[in-house]
Amino acid sequence: MFDSLTLALEKGNVYGLLGQNGVGKTTLLKIMAGLLKSDQAACNVNGFHPYKRQPAFLADIYYLPEEPACPPGTVGELGKNYGTFYPGFKMEQFYSLLDRFEVKPGQKFKDLSAGQQKKAYISYALSLNTGILLLDEPSNGLDIPSKALFRSIVAGHINENRIMVVSTHQVRDLEHLIDPVIILDNKGVLLHATIQEIAERICFITNSDSDPDALYSEETPMGYAMVKANTMGLDTKVNLEALFNAVLKQKEWFNEHFKVNDHE
Amino acid sequence: MIMNNIFDFNRFSAVTAKEIREYFRNYGISIVSILGIYFLFLILPVLVGGSVSALSRISMMMLLIAVIMIVAPSKLYGTVNHHRKGLNYVLLPLSTLEKTLSMFFITAVFTTFIVTAGLLILDTVVYLIMPLRLNEMLFTAHSMEIMGIELISLLVIQSWFVLGNMLFKNQKVAKTILSLLGLVILTGLLSIFVFNIIGYEKVGMFFEEQFSDMSLNIDGSKFRVFGIGDMRELMKGIPIYKKMMTIQYILWSVVSLGCWIGTYRLIKTRKY
Q1: Is B75 on the interface with A (CB under 8 A)?
Q2: Residue A182 pairs with which residues in a beta bridge?
Q3: Which residue intervals of chain A bear CATH 3.40.50.300?
Q4: Chain B: residue nearest A65 by CA?
Q5: pTM value?
Q6: Cβ distance B161 to B73 under 8 Å?
Q7: CA dihedral in degrees (A133, A136, A138, A140; nearest 10)?
Q8: A40 touches chain B (CB under 8 A)
Q9: Contact between chains at B90 and A35 (C-beta distance less than 8 A)
Protein backbone atom coordinates (compact mmCIF):
# COMPACT_ATOMS: atom_id res chain seq x y z
CA MET A 1 0.00 0.00 0.00
CA PHE A 2 2.62 2.57 1.03
CA ASP A 3 6.02 2.96 -0.65
CA SER A 4 7.50 4.60 2.41
CA LEU A 5 5.57 5.96 5.34
CA THR A 6 7.23 7.20 8.50
CA LEU A 7 5.05 8.67 11.19
CA ALA A 8 5.44 9.27 14.91
CA LEU A 9 2.40 10.33 16.94
CA GLU A 10 2.43 12.07 20.32
CA LYS A 11 -0.06 11.99 23.17
CA GLY A 12 -2.50 14.82 23.81
CA ASN A 13 -3.49 15.33 20.16
CA VAL A 14 -6.40 14.64 17.86
CA TYR A 15 -4.68 13.77 14.60
CA GLY A 16 -6.62 14.29 11.42
CA LEU A 17 -5.71 11.68 8.84
CA LEU A 18 -6.69 12.97 5.43
CA GLY A 19 -6.26 11.52 1.99
CA GLN A 20 -8.03 10.64 -1.21
CA ASN A 21 -10.04 7.44 -1.48
CA GLY A 22 -7.82 4.39 -1.68
CA VAL A 23 -4.60 5.93 -0.36
CA GLY A 24 -4.68 3.61 2.65
CA LYS A 25 -6.08 5.59 5.58
CA THR A 26 -8.14 2.63 6.81
CA THR A 27 -5.26 0.24 6.16
CA LEU A 28 -2.96 2.41 8.26
CA LEU A 29 -5.46 2.51 11.14
CA LYS A 30 -5.96 -1.26 10.94
CA ILE A 31 -2.21 -1.85 11.02
CA MET A 32 -1.97 0.38 14.10
CA ALA A 33 -4.81 -1.58 15.76
CA GLY A 34 -3.19 -4.96 14.97
CA LEU A 35 -5.96 -6.00 12.59
CA LEU A 36 -3.61 -6.23 9.61
CA LYS A 37 -0.12 -7.61 9.43
CA SER A 38 2.98 -5.45 9.45
CA ASP A 39 6.64 -6.18 10.03
CA GLN A 40 7.65 -6.00 13.68
CA ALA A 41 10.20 -3.27 12.95
CA ALA A 42 7.79 -1.30 10.77
CA CYS A 43 5.07 -0.52 13.27
CA ASN A 44 5.44 0.06 16.98
CA VAL A 45 2.53 1.23 19.11
CA ASN A 46 3.17 1.92 22.80
CA GLY A 47 6.19 -0.38 22.58
CA PHE A 48 4.17 -3.28 21.16
CA HIS A 49 4.07 -4.94 17.76
CA PRO A 50 0.33 -4.52 17.12
CA TYR A 51 -0.16 -7.72 15.10
CA LYS A 52 0.84 -9.83 18.12
CA ARG A 53 -2.42 -8.61 19.72
CA GLN A 54 -1.20 -8.94 23.28
CA PRO A 55 -3.73 -8.15 26.03
CA ALA A 56 -1.63 -5.28 27.42
CA PHE A 57 -1.63 -3.68 23.96
CA LEU A 58 -5.31 -4.33 23.24
CA ALA A 59 -6.35 -2.93 26.63
CA ASP A 60 -5.12 0.52 25.62
CA ILE A 61 -6.33 0.80 22.02
CA TYR A 62 -9.67 0.79 20.24
CA TYR A 63 -10.49 1.02 16.56
CA LEU A 64 -13.92 2.17 15.46
CA PRO A 65 -14.55 1.27 11.80
CA GLU A 66 -16.51 3.44 9.38
CA GLU A 67 -19.40 0.99 9.37
CA PRO A 68 -19.41 -0.93 12.64
CA ALA A 69 -21.35 -4.19 12.61
CA CYS A 70 -24.67 -4.38 14.38
CA PRO A 71 -24.08 -6.56 17.46
CA PRO A 72 -26.83 -8.75 18.94
CA GLY A 73 -28.58 -7.47 22.04
CA THR A 74 -29.09 -4.02 23.43
CA VAL A 75 -26.81 -0.97 23.43
CA GLY A 76 -26.26 -1.32 27.16
CA GLU A 77 -25.16 -4.94 26.72
CA LEU A 78 -22.31 -3.80 24.47
CA GLY A 79 -20.85 -1.96 27.45
CA LYS A 80 -21.69 -4.70 29.92
CA ASN A 81 -20.36 -7.61 27.83
CA TYR A 82 -17.38 -6.02 26.08
CA GLY A 83 -16.54 -2.71 27.79
CA THR A 84 -15.83 -4.33 31.14
CA PHE A 85 -12.69 -5.97 29.69
CA TYR A 86 -11.05 -2.55 29.28
CA PRO A 87 -9.43 -1.24 32.46
CA GLY A 88 -10.48 2.37 31.77
CA PHE A 89 -14.10 1.65 30.88
CA LYS A 90 -16.75 3.51 32.88
CA MET A 91 -20.36 2.41 32.53
CA GLU A 92 -21.70 5.74 33.88
CA GLN A 93 -19.68 7.61 31.27
CA PHE A 94 -21.06 5.31 28.56
CA TYR A 95 -24.64 5.95 29.69
CA SER A 96 -23.98 9.68 30.00
CA LEU A 97 -22.64 9.86 26.42
CA LEU A 98 -25.58 7.79 25.15
CA ASP A 99 -27.86 10.26 26.89
CA ARG A 100 -26.16 13.20 25.16
CA PHE A 101 -26.58 11.48 21.81
CA GLU A 102 -30.20 10.63 22.75
CA VAL A 103 -29.71 6.88 22.41
CA LYS A 104 -31.42 4.68 25.01
CA PRO A 105 -29.26 1.89 26.53
CA GLY A 106 -32.22 -0.50 26.57
CA GLN A 107 -32.78 -0.29 22.81
CA LYS A 108 -31.79 -3.23 20.67
CA PHE A 109 -29.01 -2.46 18.20
CA LYS A 110 -30.96 -3.91 15.28
CA ASP A 111 -33.83 -1.50 15.97
CA LEU A 112 -31.58 1.57 15.67
CA SER A 113 -30.92 3.52 12.47
CA ALA A 114 -27.38 3.47 11.06
CA GLY A 115 -26.76 6.95 12.49
CA GLN A 116 -27.97 5.95 15.96
CA GLN A 117 -25.81 2.82 15.86
CA LYS A 118 -22.84 5.03 15.01
CA LYS A 119 -23.64 7.31 17.96
CA ALA A 120 -23.88 4.29 20.28
CA TYR A 121 -20.52 3.04 19.06
CA ILE A 122 -18.89 6.49 19.41
CA SER A 123 -20.17 6.62 23.02
CA TYR A 124 -18.76 3.14 23.63
CA ALA A 125 -15.40 3.95 22.03
CA LEU A 126 -14.94 7.13 24.07
CA SER A 127 -16.02 5.55 27.36
CA LEU A 128 -13.40 2.79 27.01
CA ASN A 129 -10.84 5.52 27.86
CA THR A 130 -8.07 3.79 25.93
CA GLY A 131 -4.81 5.68 25.45
CA ILE A 132 -5.17 5.34 21.69
CA LEU A 133 -8.46 5.77 19.91
CA LEU A 134 -8.63 5.26 16.16
CA LEU A 135 -11.77 6.59 14.51
CA ASP A 136 -12.41 5.80 10.86
CA GLU A 137 -14.76 8.32 9.22
CA PRO A 138 -16.63 8.88 12.50
CA SER A 139 -18.87 11.66 11.17
CA ASN A 140 -20.22 9.57 8.26
CA GLY A 141 -23.87 8.77 8.85
CA LEU A 142 -24.36 11.44 11.54
CA ASP A 143 -26.97 14.15 11.00
CA ILE A 144 -25.94 17.84 11.18
CA PRO A 145 -26.73 18.44 14.89
CA SER A 146 -25.01 15.18 15.79
CA LYS A 147 -21.85 16.21 13.93
CA ALA A 148 -21.60 19.35 16.06
CA LEU A 149 -22.31 17.31 19.18
CA PHE A 150 -19.68 14.77 18.12
CA ARG A 151 -17.04 17.53 17.79
CA SER A 152 -17.96 18.90 21.18
CA ILE A 153 -17.87 15.48 22.87
CA VAL A 154 -14.55 14.46 21.29
CA ALA A 155 -13.01 17.82 22.23
CA GLY A 156 -14.06 17.14 25.82
CA HIS A 157 -12.45 13.71 25.82
CA ILE A 158 -8.94 14.55 24.73
CA ASN A 159 -6.34 14.74 27.45
CA GLU A 160 -2.55 14.65 27.76
CA ASN A 161 -2.50 10.84 28.05
CA ARG A 162 -4.56 10.13 25.00
CA ILE A 163 -4.02 10.05 21.25
CA MET A 164 -6.93 10.16 18.86
CA VAL A 165 -6.47 9.55 15.17
CA VAL A 166 -9.45 10.52 13.08
CA SER A 167 -9.48 9.41 9.47
CA THR A 168 -11.82 11.38 7.26
CA HIS A 169 -12.46 12.88 3.90
CA GLN A 170 -15.29 14.99 5.33
CA VAL A 171 -12.80 17.63 6.44
CA ARG A 172 -15.43 20.31 7.11
CA ASP A 173 -17.08 18.07 9.70
CA LEU A 174 -13.93 18.03 11.77
CA GLU A 175 -12.61 21.56 11.44
CA HIS A 176 -11.72 23.08 14.84
CA LEU A 177 -11.23 19.56 16.17
CA ILE A 178 -8.25 17.99 14.43
CA ASP A 179 -4.76 19.25 15.13
CA PRO A 180 -2.19 18.24 13.81
CA VAL A 181 -3.14 17.39 10.26
CA ILE A 182 -1.64 14.46 8.35
CA ILE A 183 -2.25 14.24 4.63
CA LEU A 184 -1.36 10.97 2.90
CA ASP A 185 -0.94 9.78 -0.63
CA ASN A 186 0.11 6.40 -2.01
CA LYS A 187 3.77 7.13 -1.45
CA GLY A 188 3.52 8.29 2.14
CA VAL A 189 3.03 11.49 4.14
CA LEU A 190 2.53 14.68 2.12
CA LEU A 191 1.96 16.96 5.08
CA HIS A 192 2.28 16.52 8.82
CA ALA A 193 1.85 19.83 10.57
CA THR A 194 0.00 21.51 13.40
CA ILE A 195 -2.70 24.07 12.64
CA GLN A 196 -0.37 26.76 14.04
CA GLU A 197 2.47 25.75 11.69
CA ILE A 198 0.08 25.75 8.76
CA ALA A 199 -1.30 29.19 9.64
CA GLU A 200 2.22 30.58 9.96
CA ARG A 201 3.37 29.36 6.55
CA ILE A 202 0.31 29.67 4.36
CA CYS A 203 -2.74 31.92 4.31
CA PHE A 204 -6.31 31.42 3.16
CA ILE A 205 -7.82 34.42 1.44
CA THR A 206 -10.75 35.22 -0.85
CA ASN A 207 -10.32 37.80 -3.64
CA SER A 208 -12.44 38.94 -6.52
CA ASP A 209 -9.56 38.20 -8.91
CA SER A 210 -7.52 35.06 -9.24
CA ASP A 211 -3.79 35.19 -8.40
CA PRO A 212 -1.39 33.15 -10.59
CA ASP A 213 1.02 32.84 -7.62
CA ALA A 214 -1.61 31.09 -5.47
CA LEU A 215 -0.81 27.53 -4.50
CA TYR A 216 -4.44 26.70 -5.03
CA SER A 217 -7.38 28.68 -6.28
CA GLU A 218 -11.08 27.82 -6.43
CA GLU A 219 -13.92 29.89 -7.80
CA THR A 220 -16.72 30.46 -5.29
CA PRO A 221 -19.85 32.73 -5.31
CA MET A 222 -17.87 35.23 -3.21
CA GLY A 223 -14.83 35.28 -5.50
CA TYR A 224 -11.67 33.18 -5.62
CA ALA A 225 -10.81 31.21 -2.48
CA MET A 226 -7.04 30.90 -2.55
CA VAL A 227 -4.24 29.26 -0.64
CA LYS A 228 -1.02 31.29 -0.78
CA ALA A 229 2.39 31.30 0.83
CA ASN A 230 2.13 33.49 3.94
CA THR A 231 4.88 35.97 3.03
CA MET A 232 3.00 38.87 4.67
CA GLY A 233 2.58 37.24 8.07
CA LEU A 234 -1.23 37.23 7.84
CA ASP A 235 -3.27 35.49 10.51
CA THR A 236 -6.01 33.61 8.65
CA LYS A 237 -8.28 30.74 9.58
CA VAL A 238 -7.12 27.38 8.21
CA ASN A 239 -9.54 26.01 5.65
CA LEU A 240 -8.89 22.27 5.71
CA GLU A 241 -10.61 21.53 2.42
CA ALA A 242 -8.62 24.20 0.56
CA LEU A 243 -5.46 23.04 2.33
CA PHE A 244 -6.09 19.45 1.28
CA ASN A 245 -6.56 20.43 -2.36
CA ALA A 246 -3.50 22.71 -2.27
CA VAL A 247 -1.33 19.91 -0.86
CA LEU A 248 -2.45 17.48 -3.56
CA LYS A 249 -1.73 20.07 -6.27
CA GLN A 250 1.57 21.41 -4.94
CA LYS A 251 3.22 18.35 -3.39
CA GLU A 252 6.78 19.54 -3.90
CA TRP A 253 6.14 23.02 -2.49
CA PHE A 254 4.64 21.60 0.68
CA ASN A 255 7.39 19.01 0.99
CA GLU A 256 9.98 21.78 0.78
CA HIS A 257 8.25 24.23 3.13
CA PHE A 258 6.90 21.89 5.77
CA LYS A 259 9.74 19.40 6.11
CA VAL A 260 7.66 16.30 6.85
CA ASN A 261 10.68 14.77 8.59
CA ASP A 262 10.34 17.27 11.48
CA HIS A 263 7.46 15.15 12.85
CA GLU A 264 8.89 11.69 12.22
CA MET B 1 0.42 -2.58 36.12
CA ILE B 2 2.16 -5.48 34.36
CA MET B 3 -0.24 -7.67 32.43
CA ASN B 4 0.27 -11.35 31.81
CA ASN B 5 0.12 -11.57 28.04
CA ILE B 6 -0.21 -15.37 27.83
CA PHE B 7 -2.81 -16.48 30.36
CA ASP B 8 -4.61 -14.85 33.24
CA PHE B 9 -7.27 -16.85 35.07
CA ASN B 10 -9.39 -13.79 35.93
CA ARG B 11 -9.54 -12.72 32.28
CA PHE B 12 -10.35 -16.30 31.25
CA SER B 13 -13.17 -16.52 33.82
CA ALA B 14 -14.51 -13.13 32.71
CA VAL B 15 -14.64 -14.07 29.02
CA THR B 16 -16.17 -17.46 29.79
CA ALA B 17 -18.81 -15.80 31.96
CA LYS B 18 -19.54 -13.31 29.14
CA GLU B 19 -19.92 -16.14 26.65
CA ILE B 20 -22.24 -18.07 28.96
CA ARG B 21 -24.33 -14.86 29.33
CA GLU B 22 -24.61 -14.61 25.55
CA TYR B 23 -25.00 -18.38 25.08
CA PHE B 24 -28.73 -18.84 25.52
CA ARG B 25 -29.57 -15.81 23.37
CA ASN B 26 -27.51 -17.29 20.50
CA TYR B 27 -28.20 -20.99 20.95
CA GLY B 28 -31.09 -21.33 23.43
CA ILE B 29 -33.78 -21.81 20.77
CA SER B 30 -31.76 -24.56 19.04
CA ILE B 31 -31.31 -26.46 22.31
CA VAL B 32 -34.98 -26.13 23.24
CA SER B 33 -35.91 -27.32 19.70
CA ILE B 34 -33.70 -30.40 20.11
CA LEU B 35 -35.37 -31.17 23.44
CA GLY B 36 -38.75 -30.71 21.75
CA ILE B 37 -37.84 -33.12 18.94
CA TYR B 38 -36.73 -35.72 21.47
CA PHE B 39 -39.93 -35.28 23.47
CA LEU B 40 -42.00 -35.85 20.31
CA PHE B 41 -39.84 -38.89 19.51
CA LEU B 42 -40.71 -40.35 22.92
CA ILE B 43 -44.35 -39.38 23.04
CA LEU B 44 -45.64 -39.99 19.49
CA PRO B 45 -45.21 -43.83 19.48
CA VAL B 46 -46.73 -43.93 22.96
CA LEU B 47 -49.80 -42.04 21.76
CA VAL B 48 -50.46 -44.73 19.13
CA GLY B 49 -50.01 -47.46 21.70
CA GLY B 50 -46.38 -48.40 20.94
CA SER B 51 -43.19 -48.26 22.99
CA VAL B 52 -39.66 -46.93 22.47
CA SER B 53 -36.70 -49.23 23.08
CA ALA B 54 -33.58 -48.19 24.95
CA LEU B 55 -31.42 -48.76 21.87
CA SER B 56 -33.51 -46.47 19.67
CA ARG B 57 -33.62 -43.83 22.44
CA ILE B 58 -29.85 -43.84 22.81
CA SER B 59 -29.39 -43.73 19.03
CA MET B 60 -31.79 -40.79 18.70
CA MET B 61 -30.17 -39.02 21.63
CA MET B 62 -26.69 -39.39 20.11
CA LEU B 63 -27.95 -38.13 16.76
CA LEU B 64 -29.44 -35.01 18.35
CA ILE B 65 -26.33 -34.41 20.47
CA ALA B 66 -24.21 -34.77 17.31
CA VAL B 67 -26.31 -32.14 15.49
CA ILE B 68 -26.07 -29.67 18.38
CA MET B 69 -22.32 -30.21 18.79
CA ILE B 70 -21.58 -29.86 15.08
CA VAL B 71 -23.63 -26.69 14.63
CA ALA B 72 -22.44 -25.07 17.91
CA PRO B 73 -19.15 -23.55 16.60
CA SER B 74 -20.81 -21.69 13.73
CA LYS B 75 -23.80 -20.60 15.82
CA LEU B 76 -21.72 -19.36 18.74
CA TYR B 77 -18.53 -18.18 17.05
CA GLY B 78 -19.61 -17.80 13.42
CA THR B 79 -18.83 -14.07 13.31
CA VAL B 80 -15.38 -14.27 14.90
CA ASN B 81 -13.56 -14.28 11.54
CA HIS B 82 -15.93 -11.79 9.86
CA HIS B 83 -14.11 -8.63 8.76
CA ARG B 84 -16.68 -6.34 10.44
CA LYS B 85 -18.65 -8.46 12.91
CA GLY B 86 -15.53 -10.02 14.39
CA LEU B 87 -13.85 -6.74 15.35
CA ASN B 88 -15.22 -6.44 18.88
CA TYR B 89 -14.09 -10.01 19.60
CA VAL B 90 -10.58 -9.69 18.17
CA LEU B 91 -10.03 -6.33 19.87
CA LEU B 92 -11.00 -7.67 23.31
CA PRO B 93 -7.95 -7.37 25.57
CA LEU B 94 -7.48 -11.13 25.98
CA SER B 95 -4.70 -13.45 24.91
CA THR B 96 -5.27 -15.89 22.05
CA LEU B 97 -4.92 -18.75 24.53
CA GLU B 98 -7.72 -17.34 26.70
CA LYS B 99 -9.96 -16.91 23.65
CA THR B 100 -9.23 -20.45 22.41
CA LEU B 101 -9.74 -22.05 25.83
CA SER B 102 -13.02 -20.24 26.42
CA MET B 103 -14.14 -21.36 22.93
CA PHE B 104 -13.19 -24.94 23.89
CA PHE B 105 -15.04 -24.70 27.19
CA ILE B 106 -18.21 -23.32 25.61
CA THR B 107 -18.40 -25.56 22.52
CA ALA B 108 -16.94 -28.83 23.81
CA VAL B 109 -17.69 -28.86 27.54
CA PHE B 110 -20.66 -26.56 28.21
CA THR B 111 -22.69 -27.39 25.09
CA THR B 112 -22.13 -31.14 25.45
CA PHE B 113 -23.05 -31.06 29.12
CA ILE B 114 -26.15 -28.89 28.68
CA VAL B 115 -27.66 -30.89 25.82
CA THR B 116 -26.77 -34.34 27.21
CA ALA B 117 -28.06 -33.47 30.67
CA GLY B 118 -31.21 -31.93 29.17
CA LEU B 119 -31.98 -35.01 27.08
CA LEU B 120 -31.27 -37.45 29.91
CA ILE B 121 -33.44 -35.50 32.35
CA LEU B 122 -36.25 -35.35 29.79
CA ASP B 123 -35.93 -39.09 29.12
CA THR B 124 -35.96 -39.87 32.85
CA VAL B 125 -39.01 -37.68 33.50
CA VAL B 126 -40.95 -39.32 30.65
CA TYR B 127 -39.82 -42.77 31.89
CA LEU B 128 -40.99 -42.01 35.44
CA ILE B 129 -44.38 -40.95 34.07
CA MET B 130 -44.75 -43.91 31.69
CA PRO B 131 -42.32 -46.66 32.81
CA LEU B 132 -44.08 -49.42 30.90
CA ARG B 133 -43.86 -47.65 27.54
CA LEU B 134 -40.13 -46.90 27.70
CA ASN B 135 -39.14 -50.40 28.90
CA GLU B 136 -36.02 -49.40 30.82
CA MET B 137 -34.30 -46.40 32.32
CA LEU B 138 -31.34 -44.89 30.45
CA PHE B 139 -29.67 -43.49 33.55
CA THR B 140 -27.66 -46.68 34.11
CA ALA B 141 -23.91 -47.19 34.35
CA HIS B 142 -23.94 -49.31 31.19
CA SER B 143 -25.72 -46.78 28.99
CA MET B 144 -23.65 -43.94 30.47
CA GLU B 145 -20.49 -45.83 29.44
CA ILE B 146 -21.80 -46.27 25.90
CA MET B 147 -22.75 -42.59 25.66
CA GLY B 148 -19.42 -41.51 27.15
CA ILE B 149 -17.45 -43.35 24.46
CA GLU B 150 -19.67 -41.96 21.70
CA LEU B 151 -19.36 -38.43 23.12
CA ILE B 152 -15.57 -38.68 22.91
CA SER B 153 -15.78 -39.49 19.20
CA LEU B 154 -18.27 -36.62 18.75
CA LEU B 155 -15.82 -34.24 20.43
CA VAL B 156 -13.19 -35.23 17.86
CA ILE B 157 -15.63 -34.55 15.02
CA GLN B 158 -16.65 -31.27 16.65
CA SER B 159 -13.03 -30.09 16.79
CA TRP B 160 -12.94 -30.46 12.99
CA PHE B 161 -16.03 -28.21 12.79
CA VAL B 162 -14.43 -25.67 15.14
CA LEU B 163 -11.47 -25.46 12.76
CA GLY B 164 -13.83 -25.25 9.75
CA ASN B 165 -15.65 -22.40 11.47
CA MET B 166 -12.44 -20.38 11.63
CA LEU B 167 -11.27 -21.44 8.18
CA PHE B 168 -14.39 -20.75 6.11
CA LYS B 169 -16.06 -17.37 5.84
CA ASN B 170 -19.60 -18.53 4.98
CA GLN B 171 -21.66 -21.74 4.75
CA LYS B 172 -19.27 -23.03 7.36
CA VAL B 173 -21.08 -26.26 8.35
CA ALA B 174 -21.74 -27.33 4.76
CA LYS B 175 -18.16 -26.66 3.68
CA THR B 176 -16.78 -28.50 6.72
CA ILE B 177 -19.00 -31.52 5.96
CA LEU B 178 -17.69 -31.48 2.38
CA SER B 179 -14.10 -31.29 3.62
CA LEU B 180 -14.81 -34.22 5.96
CA LEU B 181 -16.25 -36.23 3.06
CA GLY B 182 -13.18 -35.37 1.03
CA LEU B 183 -11.01 -36.67 3.85
CA VAL B 184 -12.98 -39.93 4.04
CA ILE B 185 -12.68 -40.45 0.27
CA LEU B 186 -8.96 -39.70 0.44
CA THR B 187 -8.50 -42.22 3.29
CA GLY B 188 -10.46 -44.81 1.28
CA LEU B 189 -8.28 -44.29 -1.78
CA LEU B 190 -5.17 -44.50 0.36
CA SER B 191 -6.41 -47.80 1.86
CA ILE B 192 -7.03 -49.22 -1.63
CA PHE B 193 -3.52 -48.15 -2.63
CA VAL B 194 -2.01 -49.83 0.47
CA PHE B 195 -4.08 -53.03 -0.05
CA ASN B 196 -2.87 -53.11 -3.66
CA ILE B 197 0.73 -53.01 -2.52
CA ILE B 198 0.24 -55.69 0.17
CA GLY B 199 -1.97 -57.84 -2.07
CA TYR B 200 -5.71 -58.46 -1.63
CA GLU B 201 -5.21 -62.18 -0.93
CA LYS B 202 -2.98 -61.53 2.05
CA VAL B 203 -5.37 -58.90 3.39
CA GLY B 204 -8.32 -61.29 2.96
CA MET B 205 -6.51 -64.07 4.79
CA PHE B 206 -5.56 -61.76 7.61
CA PHE B 207 -9.15 -60.63 8.20
CA GLU B 208 -10.46 -64.21 7.94
CA GLU B 209 -8.05 -65.23 10.67
CA GLN B 210 -9.06 -62.32 12.88
CA PHE B 211 -12.82 -62.79 12.47
CA SER B 212 -12.75 -66.56 12.95
CA ASP B 213 -11.87 -65.88 16.60
CA MET B 214 -14.75 -63.45 16.81
CA SER B 215 -17.34 -65.97 15.55
CA LEU B 216 -16.14 -68.44 18.17
CA ASN B 217 -16.75 -65.77 20.78
CA ILE B 218 -20.31 -65.23 19.57
CA ASP B 219 -21.12 -68.92 19.42
CA GLY B 220 -19.77 -69.49 22.91
CA SER B 221 -21.95 -66.89 24.65
CA LYS B 222 -25.50 -65.63 24.77
CA PHE B 223 -24.68 -62.19 23.47
CA ARG B 224 -27.43 -59.60 23.31
CA VAL B 225 -26.56 -56.68 21.04
CA PHE B 226 -27.89 -53.69 22.97
CA GLY B 227 -26.07 -51.07 20.91
CA ILE B 228 -22.73 -49.85 19.66
CA GLY B 229 -21.21 -50.41 23.09
CA ASP B 230 -22.10 -54.11 23.07
CA MET B 231 -20.78 -54.33 19.54
CA ARG B 232 -17.51 -53.07 20.96
CA GLU B 233 -17.58 -55.87 23.57
CA LEU B 234 -18.05 -58.32 20.73
CA MET B 235 -15.15 -56.79 18.83
CA LYS B 236 -12.87 -57.52 21.79
CA GLY B 237 -12.81 -61.04 20.44
CA ILE B 238 -10.62 -59.89 17.57
CA PRO B 239 -6.92 -60.36 18.47
CA ILE B 240 -5.75 -57.04 17.07
CA TYR B 241 -8.67 -55.15 18.64
CA LYS B 242 -6.57 -53.65 21.44
CA LYS B 243 -3.94 -52.41 19.00
CA MET B 244 -6.63 -50.99 16.72
CA MET B 245 -8.26 -49.13 19.61
CA THR B 246 -4.89 -47.75 20.73
CA ILE B 247 -4.20 -46.50 17.23
CA GLN B 248 -7.71 -45.04 17.02
CA TYR B 249 -7.38 -43.14 20.30
CA ILE B 250 -3.94 -41.84 19.33
CA LEU B 251 -5.32 -40.72 15.97
CA TRP B 252 -8.32 -39.04 17.61
CA SER B 253 -6.08 -37.20 20.04
CA VAL B 254 -3.77 -36.05 17.25
CA VAL B 255 -6.66 -34.89 15.04
CA SER B 256 -8.45 -33.13 17.88
CA LEU B 257 -5.31 -31.44 19.18
CA GLY B 258 -4.32 -30.48 15.64
CA CYS B 259 -7.72 -28.87 15.03
CA TRP B 260 -7.55 -26.86 18.25
CA ILE B 261 -3.96 -25.75 17.56
CA GLY B 262 -5.09 -24.75 14.06
CA THR B 263 -7.98 -22.77 15.57
CA TYR B 264 -5.57 -21.03 17.96
CA ARG B 265 -3.31 -20.08 15.02
CA LEU B 266 -6.23 -18.77 12.99
CA ILE B 267 -7.53 -16.64 15.90
CA LYS B 268 -4.01 -15.26 16.35
CA THR B 269 -3.21 -14.50 12.73
CA ARG B 270 -6.57 -13.67 11.15
CA LYS B 271 -6.46 -10.39 9.21
CA TYR B 272 -9.49 -8.10 9.32
Answers
A1: no
A2: A17, A192
A3: 13-179
A4: B84
A5: 0.89
A6: yes
A7: 180
A8: no
A9: yes
Look up the ipTM and state it.
0.89
Kindly list the domain boundaries of chain B, sorted by start residue: 9-198+240-269
Q: Counting every residue, how long is chain B?
A: 272
Percent of chain A with pLDDT over 70: 96
Give burial (CB, 10 Å; 0-12/13-18/19+) of B172.
buried
Q: What whole-number distance in Å separates Cα of residue A43 and Cα of residue A37?
A: 10
Cis peptide before A68 (omega within 30 of 0): no
Contact call for residues A103 and A112 (beta carbons, < 8 A): yes
Please indicate if any CB of chain A lies within 8 Å of the CB of B10: no
**Which of A36, A56, A72 lies at the smallest CB-CB distance from B3?**
A56
Say yes or no to pLDDT of B222 above 70.
no
Nearest to A72 by CA among B21, B144, B175, B192: B21
Radius of gyration of chain B (CA): 22
**pLDDT tens string A188-219:** 899 999 999 999 999 999 999 989 999 999 99
Q: Burial letters for A169-184: b for 16+ Cβ neighbours within 10 Å, e otherwise? A: bbbebbbebbbbbbbb
Q: Which of A125, A179, A118, A137 is nearest to A19 (CA)?
A: A137
The domain defined by A13-179 folds into Rossmann fold (3.40.50)
Which residues does chain B have within 8 Å of residue A85's beta carbon, measured at their own beta carbons? Answer: 11, 14-15, 92-94
Residue A54 to residue B14, Cβ atoms within 8 A = no
Cα–Cα dist B231/A80, whole Å: 51
- The amino acid that residue A212 corresponds to is P
- Number of other residues whose CB lies within 10 A of the CB of residue A37: 13
Question: What does each C-alpha distance from B207 to A5, A60, B211 come to in angstroms?
Answer: 68, 64, 6
